[in-house]
Design goal:
- Helix content is 32%, strand content 16%.
- It is built from twelve helices and 13 strands.
- The strands form four sheets. Strands 1, 2, 3, 4 and 13 form a five-stranded mixed beta sheet that branches.
- The protein is globular and about 50 Å long.
- It starts with a strand and ends with a helix.
- Residues 4-311 form the GP-PDE domain.
- GO terms for molecular function: glycerophosphodiester phosphodiesterase activity.
- It is an enzyme of class 3 (hydrolase).
Length: 312
């Protein structure tokens, strides 16, 4: 059986603040096969690497720019130029209402000197590491909320694809997967924008009103057939791939066989060694279920070293 790829979820985010160059460098050193980039746009249309369209859960934006929130009291990346974003300190993820860390045992929130990177800066950093370390780690960019970005006046997807092309990520043989939750955008990426590289349809739950994506339908035979016509694989929630019985035995979700029947790769999110799903007795039990029972092709993880060590 071919070994599944280790996808560093927001970098080595279990150890240092997510989507910082430190997190990506650490994941590279740990041996991750692919390093993930979530991508949103600045006010001046520069793609930057952040998980959310908001800044207030991972930075000191409320302290540095207290009057720049919208009517919902949130601070939006797209309301700040790149120069302004570069002034912000990036922290371990926290709850804005309380200031408490989402993962209290991880890197101390509010400490360190971490900054926001552009997509181009991060791709250059990764390629430099590939050269100096003699080992190629691929990239795994996600285009975040493309409909919302267009409503704000920025068509994010072609901007991202252009940056990827400048760094040589255009074909299926290149070490890159492009991912998106928006099913219409996945179709657009392949058919309208002509992207020839590897493409992943992310799958959540329910129905996304903004994009019109019906995830329940995507999980059906008909939906997966449509996905397979444009994409190379799916990125489902880990709980849709494996669960555990009352006695701790792994239970593989129906989505797995259905997707495999269409030849789709399966890259679930997210394995967290410090936040295992219900029923998983240990990290080994979780990885056994994913790799030997569900036979996933890759796995997003906050702790890439744990998965790398398991696969040795």
């Amino acid at each position: 059986m071919k070994s599944p790829i280790v996808i560093a979820h927001r970098g080595a985010s279990g150890y240092v603040p997510e989507h910082t160059l430190m997190a990506k460098g650490m994941a590279h050193a740990m041996g991750a096969d692919f390093l993930e980039q979530d991508i949103v746009a600045s006010k001046d249309g520069v793609p930057v690497v952040l998980h959310d369209i908001h800044l207030d859960t991972v930075s000191d934006v409320a302290k540095r720019y207290p009057d720049r929130c919208r009517s919902d009291a949130r601070f939006y990346v797209i309301d700040f130029t790149l120069d302004e974003l570069k002034q912000l300190a990036v922290y371990e993820r926290f709850h804005p209402s309380t200031g408490k860390a989402v993962f209290p045992e991880r890197y101390p929130s509010g400490e360190g000197d971490f900054r926001i990177s552009t997509l181009a800066e991060e791709l250059q950093f990764i390629q430099n590491l590939n050269r100096t370390c003699g080992r190629e780690a691929g990239v795994y960019p996600e285009i975040k909320r493309p409909v919302w970005h267009r409503d704000q006046g920025i068509d994010l997807t072609p901007i991202v694809l252009d940056v990827l092309a400048k760094f040589g990520y255009t074909e299926k043989q290149h070490a890159c997967y492009v991912q998106c939750f928006d099913a219409n955008e996945v179709i657009r990426i392949r058919n309208e924008l002509g992207y020839r590289g590897r493409l992943i349809q992310l799958i959540a739950d329910g129905h996304d009103v903004e994009s019109g994506t019906d995830y329940k339908r995507l999980k059906t035979h008909e939906g997966l057939a449509e996905v397979a016509s444009v994409a190379d694989g799916i990125g489902p929630n880990l709980v849709d791939v494996v669960g555990f019985s009352a006695t701790g035995e792994p239970v593989v979700g129906e989505l797995v066989a259905a997707a495999q029947g269409f030849g789709l790769l399966i890259h679930p999110w997210t394995f967290r060694a410090d936040a295992l799903p219900a029923g998983a007795m240990s990290t080994k039990a979780m990885l056994d279920a994913c790799i030997h029972h569900a036979k996933v092709d890759g796995l997003f993880t906050d702790q890439p070293d744990v998965m790398v060590e398991y696969l040795r």
